[in-house]
Model the fold of this input.
Amino acid sequence: MQLLPTVTAGTALFLDFDGTLAELAPTPDSVHVPSGLVTTIAALRQHLGGALAIVTGRRVEDVDRFLSPLLLPVAGEHGAEFRLPDGTGPDIAPPALGPALDVMERLAATHHGLLVERKPHSVALHYRHAPDLEALCLAAVQAAVAPLPGVELLRGKCVLEVKSAHVDKGRAIAIFMQALPFEGRTPIFVGDDVTDEAGFAVVQGLGGIGIKVGEGPTQARYRCQNPAALRGWLASARTSLAAAEASIPPSPAES
Done:
């Protein structure tokens, strides 16, 4: 099995949520956050001097709810929503998604097993409970998106998402890397889906590391078997960083 890279005190760590930190669930709201995950993330953030952020297709408020009581730096909706470490974020206007939403809602009303997820800057159609409808859903949503300016269709794991063409996880990470405490560090980004490929490209272009969770083609240079294995790697990184800190002798002013 491939050994995953070492997280050092000079790392900037970027983590996807669904399928990465937590296993995928039948519906977006039924995700289970494993015991100990929040504690591990909180400790890692402290050891990394705050240079840990969540980069996800989720809304920022969803991340806050699942990882409560943490309030982390987050790029939500693939970077359409932002919370930088100082609490600010770029002002990104939402695209006009009405026609795509209308098509998704008609499909969901007509076919059992489809679920429409509305977000402030995007809309998604989940077909995990009706995988045989993938071709039908794809054709209908593609037709709805084609005439819309400035939007794009993302195909994820049993989900079709329509969002602004001007945001993606790679651009989100690039924004973080220009802000303290991320600036000047070596970035690592971990994700599981095709929507994470833009993030892998950016971190590796900056001399960092991409880690793909699960199967499927990827440009990431490392691969992790599943979310449980990824959580084990994070826990080990926490232990190693704590040990490294404990081995540093105190400065004269502290002794």
